[in-house]
Specification:
Order of helices and strands: EHEHEHEHEHEHHEEHHEHEH
Number of domains: 1
GO molecular function, one term: myo-inosose-2 dehydratase activity
Protein name: Inosose dehydratase
CATH topology: TIM Barrel
Shape: globular
CATH architecture: Alpha-Beta Barrel
CATH class: Alpha Beta
Pfam families: AP_endonuc_2
Organism: Streptomyces rimosus subsp. rimosus
Number of helices: 11
Strand content: 15-25%
EC number: 4.2.1.44
CATH superfamily: Divalent-metal-dependent TIM barrel enzymes
């Protein structure tokens, strides 16, 4: 007697996409990265519909040019990305807002609705130099939380966009404790989370638990997995994030953790439309490496119902 194969649940609230990061792109311009036209060609070939802008300046910043390039490939933009160090207090606001305005202008012109906010690193991802203490003071937590609320309010008022803050390795919003402290200290009407499944697992967090506990704060997803063996070595040696990526700590699904089907199903159960953007940190990488991985990843996500 044959046993029927389980039919994957249809995850129709998730909008699947990819990003320049999955092509090894971390910088606006770098000789080790694929040219932007090749990225667009290949992300479309891998059958993704949505992309992020990536580092500002990698893709064309002229909206008319970018619209035309995306239109030729049937691609749409889900979000732009900004970098902040708001825990330093009001003195950094003007510099932060200049950067945010630039990215938000292009993001809005592409009809996207989100800005992914990445906090600044506490140590250099190349040299491992500690740039500042790993733990924030009480005053710095206040600056971070109030600064993010101010950012969320002003971005919405001036650009009609929502910010989603990205917990990230080697930043002050990384571990379960720090993520929960940040969420508990900020206004849900102004600030929500971009949950990166790989970064949260890298820092010891339980993705499904976070989604089930703070579901109303999950505004966006990055789909990523971590190689547990390499991660154990990274943790044991205190390796900074950049060198860890070069070791291959972020791997293609379904080879790592967290298992993505339970994460995707928990996100579906929130019953809201969510972007779920694939990111596999692998800077730098051979130019021919990303496309086959992207194809396999897209097939895997379809097998999960997404």
């Amino acid at each position: 007697m044959s046993v029927p194969h389980a039919v994957p649940r249809v995850l129709d609230r998730l909008r699947i996409g990819s990003a320049p990061d999955s092509w090894g792109v971390w910088f606006p311009d770098d000789d080790q990265q694929v040219p932007w036209r090749r990225f667009l060609d290949e992300v479309a070939e891998a059958q993704y519909e949505w992309i992020e802008l990536g580092p500002y300046g990698y893709l064309p910043t002229d909206p008319a040019v970018l619209h035309a390039e995306l239109g030729e490939r049937d691609l749409k933009v889900s979000a732009g990305t900004i970098f902040t160090s708001l825990h330093h207090g009001p003195d950094v606001w003007d510099k932060t807002w200049a950067h945010v305005s630039e990215v938000a202008t292009l993001t809005r012109a592409m009809n996207a609705k989100h800005l992914v906010v990445i906090p600044s690193f506490w140590r250099d991802d190349k040299t491992a130099e500690e740039l500042e203490p790993r733990e924030l003071t009480t005053e710095q937590w206040h600056h971070l939380n109030s600064g993010m609320e101010r950012l969320g309010k002003q971005v919405r008022e001036e650009f009609g966009l929502d910010i989603v803050v990205h917990p990230h390795a080697d930043t002050h919003i990384d571990t379960e404790e720090h993520v929960e402290r940040f969420l508990d200290g900020t206004d849900a009407s102004l600030v929500n989370l971009c949950l990166d499944t790989g970064h949260y697992a890298y820092c010891g967090g339980d993705n499904v638990k976070l989604i089930k506990t703070y579901g109303e704060r999950i505004g966006y997803l990055h789909l990523k997995q971590v190689d547990p063996d390499i991660l154990a070595d990274v943790v044991a040696k205190g390796t900074p994030f950049g060198p860890a990526v070069r070791q291959g700590v972020m791997c293609e699904p379904p080879l790592g953790v967290p298992a993505l089907p339970p994460v995707l199903e928990a996100a579906q159960e929130l019953d809201v439309d969510l972007f779920a953007i694939v990111e596999q940190d692998m800077y730098p990488c051979p130019a021919d490496q990303p496309l086959p991985i992207a194809r396999r990843t897209r097939r895997f996500l379809r097998s999960c119902g997404a």
